[in-house]
Structure formats: structure tokens, C-alpha cells
Design a protein that fits this description.
α1 packs across α4 and α7 packs across α8. Strands 5, 6, 7, 8, 9, 10, 11, 12 and 13 form a nine-stranded mixed beta sheet that branches. Strands 3-2-1-4 form a four-stranded antiparallel beta sheet. A hairpin with a 4-residue loop joins β2 and β3. Helices cover about 40% and strands about 20% of the residues. The chain is α/β, with parallel strands linked by helices and about 475 residues long.
């Protein structure tokens, strides 16, 4: 792609600033590397078992109109099993790595100027075009999905936001008002947001703390008798041990969606162990979330599950905060599975389905009442979706991609700056603690969980709050 073509793309983007504003920046250089880790224990979700992760770490240099430069850093797991589950692990991972190379080249040579959100808006169509080209070049049996493309370019977008905040010596969350981003949200979303600026929906300062959601994967031991072979590394080995170790009060339960009895039994078992453990700790209040990872065959399955669960564990049922992505991610192809009846019982949120404003609005029409925000979909897009969801009074949560290190700091910062988000999921401490270790002493409030809380009030540094 030529520089001329990029400038043409930029000039057509509704919110692009071509250097006329004093706060505009250009991307001067981009570099990246991959980092591999083995999981401590396997994690099962959506019918897949994951045992390793590859991080994409991105470094970015930006230049302001006055000549000042700044470097930023972004990191994100290449969650290929989650974002591109249709292909074998190594095939989808290689596709994402190849796409990262193309995205790096596009970003490096862009030449467009503006706020980081404007730059992302201008470049996203080129990233999607690159994904189609990679799909053809690698002769993939299926094209790279948009969700997968979002995950791949998210650390590039994060690095630009990080550099931008550092350039101005402030948290990037202080750069979303008209002083830095002079166009209102109607330029990015639709006419409903005319006269409203992004900072209306974003907190300038982070919440002091966020309750942490602990994950119980579909193969994770719930009781001591479930442990087939101990890891023996000093970390907890079953749910009760984790509750005591971190003071957990929020538990996310992965379900299969293909065996109604198993799913109900699983939640009942988790509730029984959690209740026994919390009572022994003299804790009176705790919560659950349920995640089917789109495996329910239809909404009737979900309704039957909720009905049976309430009959067998009424108090446990009352502790459920929300249910996540019960049926297929392609809402256009699955419009018969509306969620109106289910959402009257419990908030039903989309996760894999949320890739743009169109998908958010379709989900609302289909009865979904909430959205799961994820840093892996890109800082720019997630902030815009957070604004749209708040406008429509939807339930909000921030979910994980087993984010370690800098990617966890990014995710935690997002959760702490979006009003209405009550808790944050963070499970890298369970599955890939090795990747967290270099960060634990630098950000103890984020990586060392006490009383079930993440101390997000510490994330006040420049940029995204992490230093590469």
C-alpha cells in the first residue's frame, strides 16, 4: 500500500485530523516481537483446551507537530483459539503472526496525523484489507475474522495511546476530552452522540480498586479430590484454595453448553464449595458470572439451564451477575436466538459478537442487555463501544484474554476508567504466572491480589500506566 493511498484513506475518515491541530501526532516508527509462555495448567473454554500463549509486544515512536517525540508500548496475547477457533492452533497462530507483520508495515508507513483514535479509525480499513490478503496468501480454508484482526492490531493501537499520553505527561485517559480530541462522538458513532465528547463516558482518574473475577475453567479442579496430579509450585490447586489465597469474592464459571445436566451440576458444585469456603471465612457476599463461549445450541437451552439452576440452587442463582455469550457469535446468522426472555432474568452480554457499533446495536435489537469490553479489541474501539453501551444503559463488564504483564495493566486501566464496570476478570495469575513475575514488584496492587481486590488506583502514570 502506498503512502498516497493511506493519505487518501485518512482524508475520507470522518474524524481525521491532518496535522492542523497542535495536539496531533504522527507515527514515526513501529517495531514488535513475540514472546512465548507455557500455561501452568490447561484452560478449557468453548470446547477447546489451551496450554500455551504467544504475546505480541509492540513499541511505537510518535512525533508531535513541534518536533517532540515519545515512545509507547502495547502488549496483547494472540488469542487465536478464542478469536479464530475454526482452524488448527498452529495455523491460526501463524496467520496472526503474519498479519502482525503486515499491520506493522502499514502502521509504520502510514504518514497520517491526528489523535490516536483518529489514526486508528483511518487505519482499520487497511488492517482489514491486510487480513484478507494474508488469508489469500496463506491459502487459509477460512478468511481471518474481523475479531481476530482486532486482536492482532490491538497492541499497535495501545502503543500509540501509550505514547500519546507519555508525550503530554498524563494518563491517556486524560486525553479523551475536546482539548485533545476536538470532534464529538457523532464523528465516530452516529448522530445520537452529537455534542457529546468521549470524556463524558470515561473517568479521568481510575477507581481506587476493582473486585477481581477468578476463573473456574471447564477442567479446573473445584475440590481437592478433583486434583489428578498436583502442580506443586506453591500456588493453589483447587477452587477453595484460590478463594483463601486471594480472598476471592467473584467467580467466573466456564460452561460447555452441550450437556445441560453437566452445566447445571458444575454451577451447583462451584456454589457448594464456594459457600462452604466463604462461610468459613465469614464472608457474606460473593458473586458469579457464567460463560458459555457461544456453545449453547439455542436460547431454549439457556432458559432450561437457568430454570433448573434456580430450582436446585436458588441462592446460588441469585448470586449470578451476568451470563456471557451463550449462543453463536455471528448474530446476523443467528437472529432466531433472541435473548429477551433470558435478559429479564439475568443480564446477557455479548463478547465474541462485539466487533463494531453495528454488532452492538444488533445485539440490543435481539434482546442482549450488556456488553463485555476487552482491551484485546483495541483501546480506540473499546472506548467508543463503552460510550455507546453507556448511552443505551447496557450492563458493562471487562473481560480477560488471560492477559499477563503490560496487557493486564492495560485491561485493568480500562476497567478502572469506565463508569459502571463493577469488576475485572484477570486469570493470568492462574494459568501463566511466569509472565507476570517481572511485573509483580513494580505493580504489586495489580499483580498481588488481596481480599479479592485489584488496587487500580495506582494506575495514574503517563500513557497506559505500564513502562516497557
Amino acid at each position: 500500500m502506498t503512502r498516497r493511498r493511506l493519505l487518501l484513506v485518512a482524508s475520507s475518515a470522518p474524524a481525521l485530523l491532518l496535522g492542523a491541530r497542535s495536539k496531533s501526532i504522527r507515527i514515526e516508527d513501529v517495531s514488535f516481537e513475540f514472546e512465548d509462555f507455557q500455561y501452568r495448567t490447561p484452560m478449557k473454554f468453548g470446547g477447546n483446551v489451551v496450554e500455551r500463549v504467544t504475546l505480541l509486544n509492540v513499541h511505537c515512536t510518535i512525533r508531535a507537530g513541534d518536533g517532540r517525540t515519545s515512545r509507547g508500548f502495547g502488549s496483547m496475547p494472540l488469542g487465536n483459539v478464542w478469536s479464530f477457533p475454526q482452524l488448527p492452533y498452529d495455523t491460526s497462530l501463524n496467520a496472526m503472526k503474519t498479519l502482525a507483520g503486515r499491520i506493522g508495515a502499514i502502521t509504520r508507513s502510514a504518514g497520517v496525523a491526528g489523535h490516536p483514535i483518529d489514526i486508528n479509525i483511518a487505519l482499520e480499513p487497511e488492517y482489514l484489507k491486510a487480513a484478507a490478503e494474508v488469508s489469500r496468501d496463506l491459502k487459509l480454508s477460512l478468511p481471518i475474522p474481523k475479531l481476530c484482526t482486532l486482536v492482532t492490531f490491538s497492541p499497535f493501537d495501545a502503543a500509540v495511546h501509550d505514547a500519546y499520553g507519555k508525550l503530554h505527561g498524563v494518563s491517556c485517559y486524560e486525553t479523551y476530552g475536546p482539548q485533545f480530541l476536538p470532534r464529538d462522538l457523532s464523528a465516530y458513532l452516529n448522530h445520537e452522540f452529537r455534542g457529546e465528547f468521549l470524556d463524558r463516558y470515561i473517568l479521568r482518574k481510575p477507581k481506587a480498586y476493582m473486585p477481581l473475577y477468578h476463573l473456574v475453567g471447564a477442567v479446573d479442579p473445584v475440590t481437592a479430590s478433583d486434583v489428578r496430579q498436583r502442580v506443586g509450585d506453591g500456588l493453589p490447586e483447587n477452587l477453595a484454595e484460590w478463594i483463601r489465597y486471594n480472598g476471592v469474592t467473584h467467580i467466573k464459571i466456564k460452561l460447555n453448553g452441550s450437556d445441560l445436566s453437566w452445566d447445571v451440576d458444575r454451577v451447583v458444585a462451584v456454589d457448594r464449595v464456594t459457600t462452604e469456603t466463604q462461610r468459613s471465612r465469614q464472608v457474606a457476599q460473593w458473586h458469579y458470572s457464567l460463560d458459555f463461549n457461544e456453545k449453547c445450541p439455542n436460547v431454549d437451552y439457556l432458559l432450561a439451564f437457568l430454570h433448573q439452576l434456580r430450582e436446585r440452587a436458588e441462592e446460588g442463582f441469585g448470586r449470578i451477575q451476568y451470563v456471557e455469550q451463550p449462543t453463536k457469535r455471528d448474530l446476523k446468522e443467528d437472529q432466531a436466538n433472541v435473548m429477551h426472555r433470558a435478559a429479564k432474568l439475568i443480564p446477557i452480554v455479548i463478547d465474541e459478537s462485539l466487533v463494531d457499533l453495528e454488532s452492538l446495536e444488533l445485539s440490543r435489537a435481539m434482546g442482549y442487555s450488556g456488553v463485555a469490553l476487552k482491551a484485546c479489541k483495541g483501546q480506540s474501539q473499546v472506548l467508543l463501544m463503552a460510550a455507546a453501551a453507556q448511552k443505551h444503559k447496557m450492563f458493562l463488564c471487562v473481560q480477560d484474554l488471560t492477559c499477563p504483564g503490560a496487557s493486564l495493566i492495560h485491561s485493568a486501566g480500562l476497567a478502572a476508567h469506565v463508569p459502571g464496570v463493577a469488576a475485572i476478570e484477570a486469570n493470568a495469575r492462574q494459568y501463566v504466572p511466569e509472565a507476570n513475575r517481572p511485573w509483580e514488584d513494580r505493580f504489586p496492587g495489580i499483580f498481588k491480589i488481596r481480599d479479592g481486590l485489584m488496587q487500580t488506583g495506582s494506575l495514574t502514570g503517563p500513557g497506559l500506566g505500564a513502562v516497557a
